[in-house]
């Protein structure tokens, strides 16, 4: 079947693998010493894989640091994918950092320009696609035990997809960068295992920033084995608390993944190679007592009109609350032509029902618009008031952007934690699980009914009211500001006798 890139999934089983990494660390790794090397005061080094679904929270934190803690010197490093000819594949990171810096410094002119560093690749995504059989098709799995069982078979490939040689190369380059920058704090991406190793082995003070929720990361720490019977396990789409009839399946899904994590021969062989070439491990911290809850961490550098005046004018043409925003992600999963046709038919059916709702005969008339890549922060579009609903795949960033902006959601999940967010919006009354009963597949009827549910009748009004109430709470103190305050505090704990140049 021919395939067309209609959209891409950003979350990429983040919660499943991050939780598995925690469990693997507990079962396999010794404790790391608490003594740390003190770095240059007021200096922070961010290390990310380059996957936007994971690193957007790091960029949001950088924005808040520039605006509210301008004395902090920021270094930002990303692993990149390079073609045999030397072309950078995922080269948007430096430009993204520069754009955020430009807007932030307009509000905080004394802020220091962030310094961008390029680390050798491949990125986590690049390694996953190049080195494993975990592809865009195999990731699209149904919710419940069946889907979790299939993902469990892939977990050791996804856990750290780099070859041993690639891992060692990235690790060594990261260690060199840490020694060169000499930061007071290293800020990590939960999926960037070589960087985690480098920070730990260098005995550097470090912090993790993740877009996922507490239950995603710490479900195994809940009392009375709550992950089996109370909390919907990653990859299921059960309500919270888990209904009695679904407890057996929820427990089986949890047990299946635990078994898979504790029996990973490929990972154990890779660890042995790494120990033989430098004595490094693959650790992930689990530190519930030291966790800071931030609320939604979104990038919103300026009003949409300042970022893309033409697109904002197009939105305004339809009127307040008259546009449905469909944003299916930015990462490794693509949608096939059948899904694209189903989506197009559902858009047409919705427009035929509501002639005053914009969704680009429809493209030519300007009522439906398709963009390959947005040059504007999605949350700033949601905040215009012109968008009635956000339709997305269930990635944590998309979910939290809609929560922050107070816009109802339609979620079309494909795998793992995406199902949990789909169930969550329905439980919270702020959206619709648009493919319940058919996921990961879509139907025209299912999509159309989901779209209409967020623009019609009293139910839609209730979703808007609840979404706006959550938005007010989230904006009392934006998550990026909370994270920035924590990072600034740790960055200021370095050697007081040394300051950045």
UniProtKB/TrEMBL annotation:
Pfam families: UDPGT. Coiled coil: none annotated. CDD domains: GT1_Gtf-like. InterPro entries: Glycosyltransferase_28, UDP_glucos_trans. Keywords: Signal, Transferase. Residues 1-29 form the signal peptide. This is Glycosyltransferase. It comes from Apiospora rasikravindrae.
